[in-house]
């Protein structure tokens, strides 16, 4: 099922209109990169090749068969002795008209033959660039794609005309996968799967999030049960260490010193591991929005950014010993105790921050903040803070069954005074269950208060 990706399709359409183009598509596994490519090349002259971890000669033979089917050139008919890569690409380049060459899972070719990026550079520079060809290199292993294609040290550096880092789908697009429009239920599913299309496809056949968890995640025979192992095995060479670091973050050890203490080790030992997890978009580092130098701040905390990994490390990893012998009750009790009361509200808070960013970009707020984030000190926190030179937006998010009342506004106003430093305040309040009549009346009388039930349309 193809949903959204309008911006990415527009980028590809724009590149296609050029005489020649070199597009790199990369991102986390299961985000729908291949589906995006399939949609784009539909009804266009294209040769699609999926690389694997097979020996190189086997892959050249497969590519030659595909090229023979594409061109009908009899030179390609001897599959027992496949031609070298340069000769194969030359034959492709000589085909008339506009054409697309897709090399999916490109990183595997560079793994079985480290010289392949150099070969492809030569082929692009000498032949493909001048042959009315659109090249699409696609890869799922982010660390490899960065090293083999995008970094300065790569032979292919500087060749790309566009690149697409395919991110998970937004919550705004999430409901298009489902046959119902219950926003609370959709948020619960989203809190499990995030915006990963492959996981959403798995979830869309269920109406109850808990049933989905039991049958598609806690069952040791389901692919989602072992998915985090698979993701980390493909991207890293120290799976156990990375698993343990993420598990510590899930357990509330959010500072690098706390993580290091859990291992009885020096914090500097974990810097490179955390950088890899951030590059993979599995983990994020958050600092209070008022920090002057966020990258140098020693107050940064680490959170699990990937929604599915966040759910899995909260509710599956701690109970693997039970789940391996098919005892799901301990995990299920934990899920029923805290999933709807703790995890879903935190996801809701993050979505409210994203919605504030979106509203600012659309001009739906009084000003466009220079940055939007969260603020906290040792005793207090504010869910949403947006800052400009002389104005400030602060926001509160409540995911409860009761309407938000005036106490929430008064507390937000008090905390805003702590950080405003003379800036003109604007308040934005998000509530799952709406607002009391008294708070609505105050909002009508003041022009610096915005009330939003659940999320903006």
Automatic annotation (TrEMBL):
Residues 312-401 form the DUF234 domain. GO terms for molecular function: ATP binding. Residues 2-202 form the ATPase domain. Gene3D superfamilies: P-loop containing nucleotide triphosphate hydrolases. This is ATPase. It comes from Kosmotoga arenicorallina S304. The lineage of its organism: Bacteria, Thermotogati, Thermotogota, Thermotogae, Kosmotogales.
């Amino acid at each position: 099922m193809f949903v959204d990706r309008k911006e990415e399709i527009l980028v590809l359409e724009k590149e296609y209109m050029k005489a020649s183009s070199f597009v790199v598509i990369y991102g986390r596994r299961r985000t729908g990169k291949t589906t995006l490519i399939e949609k784009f090349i539909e009804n266009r002259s294209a040769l699609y090749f999926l690389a694997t971890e097979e020996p190189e000669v086997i892959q050249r033979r497969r590519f030659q068969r595909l090229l023979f089917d594409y061109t009908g050139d009899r030179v390609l008919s001897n599959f027992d002795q496949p031609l070298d890569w340069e000769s194969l690409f030359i034959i492709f380049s000589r085909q008339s008209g506009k054409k697309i060459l897709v090399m999916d899972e490109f990183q595997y070719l560079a793994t079985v033959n480290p010289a392949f990026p150099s070969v492809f550079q030569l082929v692009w520079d000498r032949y493909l660039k001048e042959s009315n060809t659109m090249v699409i290199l696609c890869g799922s292993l982010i660390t490899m794609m960065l090293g083999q294609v995008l970094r300065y040290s790569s032979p292919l550096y500087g060749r790309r005309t566009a690149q697409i880092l395919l991110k998970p789908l937004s919550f705004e697009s999430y409901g298009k996968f489902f046959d119902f429009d219950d926003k609370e239920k959709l948020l619960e599913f989203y809190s499990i799967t995030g915006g990963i299309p492959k996981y959403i496809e798995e979830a869309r056949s269920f109406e109850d999030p808990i049933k989905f968890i039991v049958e598609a995640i806690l069952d040791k025979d389901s692919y989602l049960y072992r998915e985090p192992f698979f993701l980390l095995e493909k991207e890293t060479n120290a799976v156990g260490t990375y698993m343990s670091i993420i598990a510590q973050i899930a357990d509330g050890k959010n500072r690098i010193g706390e993580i290091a203490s859990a291992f009885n080790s020096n914090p500097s030992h974990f810097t490179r591991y955390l950088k890899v997890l951030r590059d993979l978009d599995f983990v994020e580092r958050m600092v209070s929005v008022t920090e002057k130098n966020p990258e140098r701040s020693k107050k940064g905390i680490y959170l699990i950014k990937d929604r599915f990994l966040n759910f899995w490390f909260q509710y599956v990893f701690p109970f693997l010993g039970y789940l391996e012998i098919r005892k799901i009750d301990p995990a299920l009790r934990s899920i029923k105790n805290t999933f709807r009361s703790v995890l879903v509200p935190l996801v809701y808070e993050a979505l409210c921050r994203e919605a504030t960013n979106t509203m600012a970009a659309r001009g739906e707020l009084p000003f466009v903040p220079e940055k939007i984030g969260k603020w906290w000190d040792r005793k207090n926190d504010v869910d949403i803070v947006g800052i400009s030179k002389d104005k400030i937006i602060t926001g509160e998010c409540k995911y409860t069954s009761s309407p938000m009342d005036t106490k929430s506004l008064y507390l937000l106003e008090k905390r805003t005074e702590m950080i405003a430093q003379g800036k003109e305040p604007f308040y934005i309040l998000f509530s799952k269950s709406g607002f009391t009549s008294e708070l609505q009346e105050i909002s009508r009388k003041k022009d610096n208060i915005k009330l939003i039930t659940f999320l903006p349309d």
